[in-house]
Amino acid sequence: MLPHSLDIPRGYARGRRLAAARAAGPAPLVLGERGPRPDQVRKRDARRSRAGARADHLRRAARPRRASAGIALITVVMMTALFSLMLAGFFLVVNGDQKVTASQRDHTQTFYGAEAGVEKMSSDLASYFQKHTSPTLTELQSALTTPANQPVISGISYPAAGGDFPDGGYSIAAAPPAAGTPGCVQSGGLWSCPGTIGGTGPLAGLQGVITPLTLSVIAQGDGASEVKMSRVVQEVAVPVFEFGIFSNTDLSFFAGPNFNFGGRVHANGNLYLAEQSGTLTLGEKVSTAGDVIRTQLENGCSTDGGGGGAAGAAQSGCQTYEGAVDVDTAPNTYRALGMTEGSVTGGPGSAPNSNWQTISLTDYNGNIVSGTTGGKTLNMALAFSGVSPIEIVRRPLANDSPTVSQARLYNQASLIVLLSDNPNELPQIQEANGGPAGPVALDASLILDQPLSTTPNTPDPCHPPVAVSSGPTLAPGYLTQNGYADPEWLPAGAPLLGGYLEVLMRDANGNLHNVTQEIVDQGIAALYTGGGSSPSWSAANSCSYNGQTYDPILELESLPVGDTALA
């Protein structure tokens, strides 16, 4: 008897057996045995179908997982390599940027180190020329280019002279003038040329001596950075006498009638511009390091006489100075400077004039400037040594400092004419032609020493004697005190000049030679052609007498030809 049902194991093993059973085909039916019911067969077949499908699915799923595992590994390797390349590139970019930034930083620092060197050398050079009028190139280099003069900047150095840097990294050289520049001379290694001062500075437009110089700086910094910078500068020297008026302190104009001043004007203090009733005309550039003041005089009086103007209440003893002040705006073109057109609204220290910039630089084209519109303090070398500017025209003293000695005109002029009441104050230099050493007296004996005179020791039209007094003769009716003549009158025959004369000439080597006698031999005045009370002199500078021509250089007070004193 057949069992009631089949005991079929569950899970994968069952599926395997069922799959094997299907492969073997249907089992043979044994007679006498009862087979499974149809519903059982259907359930069995359904289970077998599901188990087989599941087994097939598992087999198919196992194979793709093994293939994708290899692809993933390759992908991971490729991604790792890509990220490694990106990281390396990023590192290279960042590292390169850092190097570029560091190089730019080092270069910038070195650039400013070179610029600082040029600026310091320019400033030192300007200060040096204020105290030294005619240095040599060697003196400039010794005074301004030593390591002690170089700026001290962390990380910056200036190479010493030698090797690749023959002149060093901090040097001054003479700049030769352009080819064909007239009047240039070389002295002490420096070139100097006469010319007109250019630019817009306080000396612009004046004639002076221009000395061009080249300033060179080589700065070395971190990262092997190196910057070379050069600048061509011009040091100029202008004679103080080129100014019509040069004042080291305050300067005042307060004329009554018309007053026309055609020279250049400069004041290191304040400039007071006033005119009483006429017109003050200033035909050249006017400059001051202080203020231009129009509302009052230097003594404090207001220009309106204290009648209620800028000075306020009436001032005792003050007069009105409300005349016109004309300043040029262009050659031969003038504009009146108004009473309210100073650089300040009142006197010294008052509020600035808000319109002064326009008035000074636009209305007058910079022909009148104050300290706020370009006016600078102009000092001679003497001023920096604590010496009065008058010393520039005085004779040297034994205790002169080098600065004062260089600034004195005595040590710069090629021809020196000296006058003194005391002959011992003048140099005792021997005459080149054998004449007397030292000075000659300006008295009646002067003509007696004329070896070139046509008739020795005899006056002639080219060699008149110096003028002498006719004596204290009183006019009719003139009463004298206590019966004596005016004690200030000189006795008859007394020289009207007096004193002593010495003329010195400086040669190319700077040595002085006494040429007094040679100068006097040429005469002491031009030929007198008139007579009586209206004397006149010939236009010619030369004087001829008895076939010989003389060229008088000195024009001293002398008796005219035909005067009774010569008879």
| Uncertain residue ranges | 1-15, 29-33, 309-314, 529-540, 561-567
Round the Cα radius of gyration to an integer and report it: 54 Å
Describe the sheet with the most strands.
5 strands, antiparallel
- Total DSSP E strands: 22
Q: Label the overall shape.
A: elongated
How do the helices and strands follow one another from N- to C-terminus? Answer: HHHEEEEEEEEEEEEEEEHEHEEEEHEE
Distance between the first and last residues' Cα = 201 Å
Count of DSSP-assigned helices:
6
Strand content: 15-25%
Class based on secondary structure composition and strand pairing: alpha/beta
In helices, the fraction of residues equals 10-25%
Please tell me the overall pLDDT.
77
In short:
This protein has 567 residues and is an alpha/beta fold. 24% of the residues lie in helices and 19% in strands. The protein is built from six helices and 22 strands.
